[in-house]
């Protein structure tokens, strides 16, 4: 666990509303679950002990007192009703233990206008409740939210991971630009980078998803960029129709799914460009 969080746990001053940003999706989730385990752990020694039943359930994200708040499957953002339900539920006393932890793994999916629904609760959370918001960067949250939470940044990312992330961002931008130009040959060429480095395929897809998400927003006249390249997002937005953007998002989900099911990155790489290009035809 990162030092800044550990200090809070060791001193017993546990923040009731916090944001964890930086690192990868996995890094943030791991950090959050360790933090949850520390809150719920029944050991008398250092927390989380990692061996008590509370810790085990928390670390596997199977604990009934950790409530994950995610968007509905057919939506791109976390709807206002989901947030209102969470707020309402947080005022109901817990059943089993004396704690309730609300974990939002993708707080970047809460539209800024809907973030207001959380203000009152984050300012004065019920005594038994803790709210944990995860996002790539806390800049996706509005100022009035940021002033009510403690922010913990995962900066201790290894050099190799950092280089991979930079490379992945670069590739995502190149792919987005090739798609915007509708240049299949260039797309095939860019995708060939994955032949030599299969590890960055998944993080490239993550970066690409953010660019396309930004393009969808830009298309709707909303310049709320969370990707590393607003330029590419704007280019995509002007080159493609809404249908094409949605179809691109679906193509990437399909590729993600193929990777997770088959763990066969080679198969996916060769089809990557045809999948993506097929989506905009
Ligand atoms: Zn424990």
Main attributes of the structure:
alpha/beta, Rossmann fold, Zinc Finger, Delta Prime, domain 3, 2 domains, 5 strands, binds zinc ion
Describe this protein's structure:
- By secondary structure, the protein is an alpha/beta fold.
- It has two domains: 3-154, P-loop containing nucleotide triphosphate hydrolases (Rossmann fold, 3-Layer(aba) Sandwich); 159-279, Up-down Bundle (Zinc Finger, Delta Prime, domain 3), CATH 1.20.272.
- It is 56% helix and 9% strand.
- The protein has a five-stranded parallel beta sheet with strand order 2-3-4-1-5, with helices on one face.
- Strand 2 (66-68), helix 4 and strand 3 (100-104) form a beta-alpha-beta unit.
- Helix 2 (25-40) runs antiparallel to helix 3, helix 8 packs parallel to helix 12 (230-239) and helix 11 (200-219) crosses helix 12 (230-239).
- The longest helix has 23 residues, at 159-181.
- It is globular and about 60 Å long.
- The model has no long low-confidence stretch (mean pLDDT 89).
How far the N terminus sits from the C terminus, by CA atoms, comes to: 46 Å
The kinds of small molecule bound in this structure are:
zinc ion
Helix content: 55-70%
In CATH, the architecture of the largest domain is 3-Layer(aba) Sandwich
Q: How many domains is the backbone divided into?
A: 2
User: What is the fold-level CATH name, i.e. the topology of the largest domain?
Assistant: Rossmann fold
Low-confidence stretches: none
Classify the beta-strand content into a percent band: 5-15%
Name the CATH homologous superfamily of the largest domain: P-loop containing nucleotide triphosphate hydrolases
**What's the shape?**
globular
Kindly state the number of beta strands.
Answer: 5
Mean pLDDT over the full residue set: 89
